[in-house]
Here is the input.
Amino acid sequence: MPKIVNHEQKRKSIAEAAWNIIKQEGFEKASIRRVATEAGMSSGALRHYFSTQDEMLLFIMNYYLEEGKKRSQSKNWSENPLQAVEEVLLELVPIDDKKKIETSVWWIFALRSLTSDTLKEKKDEMTNGTYELASSMIQMLVLQGLLPESINVELETSRLSALIEGLSIHALLRPDVYSSEKVKEVIRYHLETLCKVCN
Here is the structure.
């Protein structure tokens, strides 16, 4: 009987094995042979998924991105529009262990993409995605009457996108200062201040 391969479990094992090596020893130590050993498979089998380090990093990025999407799709968002916007934005910042892994992978990926054509397109897609999500949140607040139609959507989108990305970096580098509670407080304060000042 042919062996049944659980590809989803393989993907999970590879992504987690590679990330463990990167986290403990750095990206350069995460060779395909090393990751294959860590994941309990042969180098040849691993090359079925990717053949270079950059392709591997893209693979890890896509894996954790999909995990984040699944988590978001399964959530029950608040019916209060301002609270719902806050909940969506909190999905983008590292306020728990899973999001810390996803955010760490993203920043390693982003830095690596500065010198890698393989990763640049995905980096641009992800960066644009953050901006577009921020834009949709601002527009939702406008539609709900919490912000006036005259607001500069482009400028507020840039400000919100920069705030989220900045908080992500600080939460990773200085969790003693930017705790989960502090990150939530800053996002809530920004949204409440925005709505108050604009109305």
User: Anything to note?
Assistant: The mean pLDDT is 87.
